[in-house]
Write a structure and sequence with these properties.
single chain; Arc Repressor Mutant, subunit A; five-stranded mixed sheet
Length: about 280
């Protein structure tokens, strides 16, 4: 068995669950699809031109970030190549795709499963959406991400594994193709597996709400924004939006981007302060 997850934090918790599985029914490696297909260009994503366009877009976002090496580390095309090779060489191998109730996982699922139709019958999905789990304090909660779930709770969740049907292998790739052709810069989860495209400024309101008329360190701004977001995204994307709003004159930035995020402080520009005051009235 081979397990697929879409967030790095999911790896450790799933590996721990596998260790706890006394029956060994979950034994297998855990692989990660690393790209976040919920943001960025995805038109012609399976062709060289579309792949390079997306890679160039990420390269621009990662500039000045603490993650500049990620552009060379993330190679999901190679991961899929190795996955297909493994499925061809091991006829009894089954693949389990794990998803939490968030756009990151669901978009990753669409991107991946659209390449696996020839292995129908061996590809399983575990979509933990709208399901109650017990947290560390013993209370019931509804997780949006796999790593929020206690490892022992995965032993119950494993019973939800089911084969992706032939019908799903027809319908889901068509839905992903629609999203690729639409090529919105942001994609959000509306419920189930329904993904909606949104404009580039989708997260700007949350960001502006976390920024005041006084300079604050960039890290503090991000922390405040994340605490208020109902639909989260990565810090790299949010910092790119801050840089875009700086160019648009909505934000003032103090510090040199070339010296890294820690050197940056942000505040609302006068026009943004006035707009915010008007919106509150």
């Amino acid at each position: 068995m081979l397990h697929i997850v879409f967030q790095e934090a999911d790896i450790a918790v799933l590996q721990k669950a596998i260790e706890l599985d006394e029956k060994g029914s979950m034994n297998g490696e855990v692989w990660q699809i690393k790209d976040d297909f919920a943001v960025g260009p995805i038109v012609n994503i399976y062709q060289a031109e579309g792949y390079q366009q997306r890679r160039d877009w990420w390269k621009g976002l990662l500039e000045f970030s603490p993650y500049t090496e990620q552009i060379d580390i993330v190679d999901d095309k190679l991961t899929v190549h190795n996955l297909l090779k493994k499925l061809d060489e091991e006829a009894d191998l089954h693949l389990w795709i794990w998803m939490g109730q968030n756009q990151h996982d669901v978009c990753g699922y669409y991107w991946l499963m659209s390449q696996l139709k020839q292995y129908q019958g061996r590809i399983h999905v575990l979509y933990l959406n709208n399901l109650p789990f017990i947290n560390e304090k013993g209370s019931i909660f509804y997780p949006t991400d796999l790593h929020q779930i206690q490892p022992k709770e995965f032993l119950k969740a494993k019973r939800l594994a089911r084969v992706i049907t032939l019908s799903e292998f027809e319908v889901d790739p068509d839905e992903w193709k629609r999203l690729c052709n639409e090529n919105a810069l942001i994609r959000t989860l509306e419920g189930g597996k329904k993904i909606a495209g949104c404009s580039a400024d989708f997260y700007d309101k949350a960001l502006l709400g976390a920024i005041s008329g006084d300079f604050q360190k960039l890290g503090k701004v991000l922390q405040n924004a994340f605490s208020k977001m109902k639909i989260a995204t990565g810090d790299v994307f949010l910092v790119w939006r801050i840089r875009q709003m700086q160019q648009d004159g909505k934000l003032e930035v103090q510090g040199d981007w070339a010296k890294g995020w820690k050197e940056i402080s942000v505040k609302l520009a006068r026009v943004a302060v006035a707009e915010h005051a008007e919106a509150v009235q």
